[in-house]
User: Fold this.
Amino acid sequence: MRLTHVRVENFQQFRTPLEINDLDDGINLFVGPNESGKSTLVRAIRAAFFERYKTRTLVDLQPWGDSSAAPEVSLAFEWQGKHWTLNKRFLQRQRSDLTSGGEHYSGDEADDRLAELLGYDIPGRGASKAEHWGIPGLLWVEQGAVQEMREPVGHAGGHLQSALSQSLGDALGDIASSSGDALIASVERERGELLTATGRPTGELRDVQQQCDAHASELTKLDGQVEQYHERVDRLGELQRLQKDIDAARPWEEQQEKARLGQQQLDEVHKLQALQAQQRHQLETCQRNLQIYRQQLQGFDNEAQQLEKRLKAREQARLELSQYEAATSGVEQRISGARAAYEAAKAQYQMARSQARRQSLEQDSQRLITEIDQLSRNLDSARELSESQRLLAEQRQRCRVDEKQLIRLQKLEQALGELGIRREALATRLRYSLEADQQLMLDEEPLSGTGEQLLVAPGEIRIPRVGTLIIKPGGSDVSELVRQQQRLADERDDLLKRLGISDLASAQAQARRAEQLKQQAQQQQARLEGLAPSGVEALEAQQQLAIGRRDTLDAELAALPVASENGSVPNESQAQATLDNVEQQLKAAEQAATDHAGKLGLARQALRTADAEWQRQYDDINAPDRQQRKSQVTDALLELKAEAEQLEAALKKRQHEIEAANPEVLEQDVKRFTRAADSLRQQASARAAEINDLQARLETLGAQGLEEKREEIRLVYQRQQRRQAELEQRSEALDLLLELLKSERQAVTRRLQAPLQKHLNRYLRLLFPGAELSVDDDLRPSTLIRQGASQPQRDDLEALSFGAREQMGLVTRLAYADLLQDAGRPTLIILDDALVHCDQARREQMKRILFDAAQRHQILLFTCHPENWQDLGAVPRDMLSLRRDCD
Amino acid sequence: MLRFLHTADWQIGRQYSRFDPDDAAMLADARYVAVQRLARLAGEEQVAAVLVAGDIFDAQTLSDRTLHRTFQAMSAFSGPWVMLPGNHDAALAESIWTRAERIGAMPANVHLLTTPEVFVLEDAGAAILPAPLTQRQTHHDLSVWFDNAETHKGAIRIGLAHGSVEGQLPESADSPNPIAADRATTAKLDYLALGDWHGLKRINARTWYSGTPEQERFKDNGAGQALLVEIDSPGDEPRVTPCEIGQHRWYQWQRQIHVASDLDALLTELAALPAMSVIDLTLSGELDLAGQQCLEQALGAAAGRHRSLQTHLGGLALVPTAEDIAALQADGYVGNVISELQQQQQGGDAQADTARQALGILARLLGDQRSAADAPESQS
Assistant:
């Protein structure tokens, strides 16, 4: 298809007609700045094809603000060797005319013919939308939409599929993918009612399977119950048979009778056993008596020997006694010796003790004499000192001056001195120096020579022959001082008089004297206290006491015996030791004597006893009835022997009888028969009980109609099983169908993909050598596979950069165009401002691609960047100059 | 002359799990109807007694309601019903019979013979010698005692037993509950009424199986009848007349379909069957889409006319003709799918069944699609 002529009038910004002639077969490059009318031209071409001529809503086609305008587009194109013209006017005086050779279509007919020719849909009414655009929607790319592939391919899908399958021959048939896909969707939906996507049962199939399982287990349970029921019935029948066959005859009674007979026999044996025991006891008694009598006889034989033994014992005792008696004198001697030694030692000890006492008393007496002497001397000194103290005290009393008054006196003297000085300072000083023989009279006092007089009171100086000078000292203080001085002097004089002293100096001397006396008294007091701390009287008493004690001691000494002249008296401790030693010896001797006496006594006693025993034995042997008793014993012994033999024979016989009866076995028989009877009775009653129990249970179970219930459930179960089998079969069939449809569809798709792939690779080679662009089932490009360094790099188309997506979009569209051309479909490619995101290098390659495509397809390329497309190999048409030409 | 009805094997309580629940319920009910019909027939024929030779009940534990229904169905005949426990309802220590007695379901005119003792039908001058089963199975011939049984002089001796007559029935070589084939002779019986075999069978002139009064198996052996027995006097040969009782006939067919006329023949055959039959139909062979449609219609109609129609079409391949496929407009890859499925269904294995069904589904879906596509066209 080749567009040859375009004319646009009253169309958006083309109010006046714009006409383009001589469009090239290959690339037609339209350049111009923004707003220069490139997009308007594209819109006009699209409107001519896509919009139904009578659509009323296309007011946007009118020039701005001119609602009376009738937008008009005329196109001329060549297709399959024919020349076609299309005239279309919208909104006002609408019309659509399509002419080709002899054919003429107008109105809707023209619109529909065009749509069929180019492969798009035209809406019944209203503006055309993307979903209607079909193949042109794919090949005519609006500004900035080259990279968008998904939707345009989707909208073109049906047209593409049908165009392609037509070109690929009858094998693929007429069925469009949409109807095949609807079939697949139906199968999927029906399969989805039974199976999940992963093939697991769902919906009714799952429910039926679950119900089947539930019923199967319920059936198993009921089977068990029925079986149990039958087993119980059988058991009941068996029990009833046993009851009838065995229990009805009361077989335990026979066993009881046997037990009773056995017991009778056993009782007989027991009687024998009792007799046996009694006889055994008699035998034992008999044998015990035999033993006693034998011992008695033995006793008679032993008596003579006993007498001999007793005699010997008596002799022995007698011997022992004589030995003890012989030792007695020795023992007595030893004890008297010990006693004499003890007395001597005791006397020695007394002597030693009084001697020691005497020495001690003499020492004490000597010490007391010395002490009394000392005390007497001290007493004399103390008495002297005491007298001297008394004299000193008297002296001190005489020269005693009161301390306070003395201090007062000192103060008065001092104050008087001070007053004198002050009066002198205040007094009028009268200094005179008189001629040697001249004299003056001051008051009553003559003045001569050189001197000085202090006047404290007015004075009269009479100067002979001159007259009298009265001098009055200035100020009143002088007289006050004189008065004060007078008062103090009076007080001092009074004090002196009271003290009996002439003046202060003698008073002080007297005080010093008193102090000396005091010290002297103190020294003497110290000495006195050293001699008699408690006073002289106490000292006297002490002296008297010592004298008393000395007298006592002297008396005691006089009483003590004087020490013996030979002077061999041992000291006290030696005497004590000797005494102790001797005492021990005495005690030992005394103990020996006691022991001896004891043994002697015992020996005497033993002799007496032995004598008595011998006497008794002797008396027994010589008793008059001894022989008689011995013969009695012998007789009894014989009798007892005979009795014992008799008893033994009887016992032997019993033993035979008892053994013959076999009581052990008899006992076991009784036990056995009794038990057998019990067990039979128990079995019978257990059976009766079980029968009752089973009957009750079976009645209850029987009421449930188990088998009928089981059959009912089996009915449901088998129906569900059939349903399950049907559904499983159906789900398998759907599965198979779906799988086949999908795989066949895929096979077809692969056949469709092959030529597209071929065209794609042709262009891709120029852009990315060795690269491949994979195409999905819907013939959409999906993954770009490029040769990487080590392994192919796979990129999802959506993930590529905008520029690369744009390039892929264009390449794919060109490949579609090739494919459509192969299928004998018209192809026209319109690119409005495409590839604006291309870098320089890629754009160079894209130019090669476009140029290549333009060898087969007419391409209208609009751009506002003419500098990018200078070397495209097409003469650019300037939109502005085009408009100028037309104007 | 003694006239009595001989029946057996009522099998009350039997369920038919192979059928759809509705059909199964009706078939179970039909057994009561058979009893009602027996009672009515007995009344009409004024027989002296009805002898039931065992297996009155199908199981030992049935619901009380079932018991009551059974005995109530017998109410149309007030004469004596002489019943013998069979293997299904043996007189065990605890049995369906003890239960029936306990709940008071059994009317007074029912005589259950649970012991091998002579039972005298006073008015009819007949002595009945029963061989009741007191175990489910026994390997002794319980009718042995008939040989030495004393009966009143001049009484008609009638044996009543349940089991397999030795050497007379198929597959009865080692079957339990044996009965000597010449028992009637050795025991000098005028008639031996037998149960257990569900078909009607004459062993000899005096020994008969009446069969079940209502068929319940796909066996063409005379089931669904009862026997009217007439004996003029002791020693006379009995006159035995089968009487139709059952409602439903059971048919089990296997048919092959290869050409259109095979299908026509089958449809004709189906139409000829008596109404309310129970049919089990297995088809194999091939069928095109038109044939399938035709068959479906015919089977639908038959299902309405009969008690139960079960079909097994696993062996029947759906083979669309070229025209069929063209009509479906199934070309392109869907066409490939159809030919693949057609190939797969030739296998004759489980996979073939699946393929056949898949093909059916595909044909239906394509048909739906086409009619959906046609609809707007026809409107426009």
In short: Chain B touches chain A through 51 residues (CB under 8 Å). DSSP finds nine helices and 17 strands in chain B.
